[in-house]
Amino acid sequence: MAEHLGDDLRAEPTEGHDHVITGIGDDSRTVQPGDLYVALPGRRFHGLDFEEEAAARGAVAVLSDRPSRRLPTLLVDRPRERVGALASWIFGHPSQELPVYGVTGTNGKTSATYLLDAALAATGLVTGLIGGVVVRGPAGACPATRTTPEAAVVQRTLAGFRDQGVGAVTMEVSSHAVSQHRVDGVRFRTVAFTNLARDHLDFHGTMERYFAAKAALFTAERTRAAVVNVDDEYGRRLRAAVNVPVWTHSMRDPSADVYADAIRCDLAGTAFTVHTPVGSAPVRLSLLGPHQVANALTALTSIVAAGGDVVRAAAGLETLAGVPGRLERVESGRDVLALVDYMHNTAGQHELLPFLRSLAPERRLILVISATGERDPGKRFPLGHTAATYADVVVVTDDSPLSEDPHVLREAVAEGAFAANGARVIVEADRRRAFEIAASCAGPGDVIVAAGRGCEPRLVAGETVRAFDDRDELRRALRRHAAARAARS
Ligand SMILES: CC(=O)N[C@H]1[C@@H](OP(=O)(O)OP(=O)(O)OC[C@H]2O[C@@H](n3ccc(=O)[nH]c3=O)[C@H](O)[C@@H]2O)O[C@H](CO)[C@@H](O)[C@@H]1O[C@H](C)C(=O)N[C@@H](C)C(=O)N[C@H](CCC(=O)O)C(=O)O
Ligand SMILES: Nc1ncnc2c1ncn2[C@@H]1O[C@H](COP(=O)(O)OP(=O)(O)OP(=O)(O)O)[C@@H](O)[C@H]1O
């Protein structure tokens, strides 16, 4: 049997020949025996730079835009565009057997996929999750290195899930992934769109191109249905543009297919009633903040769109204790509310900061903020400005500058914060010291939020990588400060 993989590539099974291809991989460091090694042209390297390593690990052939000197080569013009379909074929088209629920959008992907995973599990399914924090299934979990893995890894992971008896997969899909063909070859049951706001312009250039990258997911070839948040401006544009069945959800518009009302958000959690064409249900989330209502609607609408049971799904959402690093509470024994969040764009700030203010109307909101290097420079000033518009104290510090000068990043954020003429602004390069300063500013009942990194486990500056988890560091800073205060009194 032969299979057409595109206009100019035709593959024949190789059993009985010298080279038997049993898998596919695009990274020489993780190639497995029997793999077709996809040698991609990159910004820094060409995959063929590592062909010796790939061969030594057992790669039997290469797919590339240049001939390998070491292994038989399938030559194609744009290899990245071939990997998804090819990997899907090699692994027996796992997404055709397995319902895959995709979630895309600027903010809310991780939260919505955790919620969707919990809801699907509550309907009795064994689940798999591919996301920016973790990749996990029945065989275990491993920390994610990216929001969406490369195409070969996506297909290998889906095949593993299928073979382990998974009944539904939830997957975060970044715009980078769409542009880089990482999800080509995935057939989705539904794809959900959460929202679109300024981010990633370093990669996409303009908002229109960013939107187009997301919108490219919503075609009949890729998904059976679209799930769209119509409270978002780009969501409404998407609804008007797509040619697949669309399920809308809203917190404001009762004419949406799925609608939430009776919304209550406080420190105990988030409660609302969901109304769908197949019934209504009360929902109680442990997660904090009104944005989690939108994320829960993304999860519930995806399930309803696929014919699932909304009452069981809603009950499933209640089983989720939290999402790592997303308004995650840090217990320190001190009488302050300390939270860590992944807020790293102004859209997220506008959603969360009014809620955080409302938690302590008489007390102070203290924010620690920073900007990551190698990301859209236009985000930095507004990040500082918005933070200082809402908060009482803003501590501007360093994140992972990667290859950039941390001083430049810090100055841009601080400039925005000072320009707001609102909060008291303190600039401290050392992140650990910034947490100490925040802890020392806090009085009883105040709210401290370490924003921007969530549960990221390390800081990266040039070639230097050091372990740094905001949750541990904030807890330590609060405890140290409490101990020092006790010793003084
Ligand atoms: C801009 C971007 O997406 N770049 C990705 C791209 O890098 P690149 O073109 O520079 O590749 P390269 O490092 O020159 O390497 C070329 C080839 O050699 C291979 N190689 C390289 C080294 C080696 O030892 N062995 C080896 O085989 C690589 O696997 C690659 O195929 O291909 C690399 C390998 O596949 C990716 O690791 C890299 O992602 C980098 C790390 C990255 O930061 N990506 C971010 C922007 C990203 O994708 N983010 C989105 C989500 C963002 C969000 O929503 O917040 C994501 O999905 O994570
Ligand atoms: N529905 C939402 N609307 C606006 N902001 C949100 C929403 N959901 C989450 N956020 C904010 O975005 C941050 C990241 O959330 P989450 O990780 O769920 O989204 P994501 O799309 O996976 O993010 P990223 O692409 O940056 O990894 C949260 O910490 C919160 O500050």
Globally, the shape reads globular
User: How many distinct beta strands?
Assistant: 25
Class per helix and strand makeup = alpha/beta
Mean pLDDT: 93
What is the CATH H-level superfamily of the largest domain? Mur-like, catalytic domain
The total number of structural domains is 3
Binned, the helix content reads 25-40%
- Which CATH class of the largest domain applies here? Alpha Beta
Count every helix, treating DSSP H or I runs of 4 or more residues as helices. 16
Characterize this entry briefly.
Keywords: Ligase. The chain has 489 residues and is an alpha/beta fold.
Write the layout of secondary structure elements.
Elements: E1 3-4, E2 10-11, E3 23-25, E4 35-39, H1 51-56, E5 61-64, E6 73-75, H2 80-90, H3 94-97, E7 100-104, H4 109-122, E8 127-130, E9 134-137, E10 140-143, H5 151-163, E11 168-172, H6 175-179, E12 190-193, H7 201-204, H8 207-215, E13 226-229, H9 233-241, E14 246-250, E15 258-266, E16 269-276, E17 279-285, H10 291-305, H11 310-317, E18 328-329, E19 337-341, H12 346-359, E20 365-369, H13 380-390, E21 393-396, H14 406-419, E22 424-427, H15 431-441, E23 447-451, E24 458-461, E25 464-467, H16 470-488
Parallel strand pairs: 3-4, 4-5, 5-6, 7-11, 7-12, 8-11, 12-13, 13-14, 14-15, 19-23, 20-21, 20-23, 21-22
Antiparallel strand pairs: 1-2, 8-9, 9-10, 15-16, 16-17, 18-19, 24-25
The structure holds ligand UAG and adenosine-5'-triphosphate.
Descriptive report:
Keywords: Ligase. This is UDP-N-acetylmuramoyl-L-alanyl-D-glutamate--2, 6-diaminopimelate ligase. Helix 4 (109-122) crosses helix 11 and helix 13 crosses helix 14. By secondary structure, the chain is α/β, with parallel strands linked by helices. The chain has 16 helices and 25 strands. It has 3 domains: 2-78, Udp-n-acetylmuramoylalanyl-d-glutamate--2,6- Diaminopimelate Ligase, Chain: A, domain 1; 94-317, Mur-like, catalytic domain (UDP-N-acetylmuramoyl-L-alanine:D-glutamate ligase); 328-488, Mur ligase, C-terminal domain (Protein-Tyrosine Phosphatase, Chain A, Alpha-Beta Complex), CATH 3.90.190.20.
